[in-house]
């Protein structure tokens, strides 16, 4: 039996892993639940009738990557080396395009992009382009995100570049509702209290004039799943998934 199995293995025609345009590298672990959520949305966003019509993917999920907000705001450990190491692992595995399902990590992508030598699908830019396409009359856009994402101005600059005005939480709401809700999701606590924290923060943005709200941390769409707000909620995780399908299938 062992010989027969070995003979079959030797007869298998293994496709080249560097076939261009066909393998998506997912640089994840920030956090693990958000990476799983992204992959599920990537599968759902792919127009496929059979297993074989789905995208080939490599997932490098490294939860030991240091906290991005801590590095940006408090002099914490720089996540750049592990982000680079993970991206290089994906490249070595045959990835031809990389997606990073973590909003705050996009503050560090410019530091590693040239060394990796592969295109990154930019989560923030794709989210804002989607808002422009789907909500052309919107002007004031609420932003729920980590404090690190806010401080890095990732969304602020992208929104203003497209003629949109960001609406952000108060300092108290950011610390005690948004960041508290994110921390609970990262800890695996996705319950009524978690949803209430995030929903209340979103409601305050609506009261401040937001016509839609970006769930701009990959834990936030998880917290807001099934929650109904009075304005549309924009999911950057889904925007990234849809963009990856478009890039791989159509090259744009």
TrEMBL record:
UniProt lineage: Bacteria, Bacillati, Actinomycetota, Actinomycetes, Micrococcales
Claim: Isomerase is one of the keywords in the record: yes
Pfam families for this protein: Asp_Glu_race
Protein name: Aspartate racemase
NCBIfam families xrefs: asp_race
Family membership: Belongs to the aspartate/glutamate racemases family.
The organism's place on the tree of life at top rank: Bacteria
PANTHER family, per the entry: ASPARTATE-GLUTAMATE RACEMASE FAMILY (PTHR21198:SF7), GLUTAMATE RACEMASE (PTHR21198)
Native source organism of the sequence: Microterricola viridarii
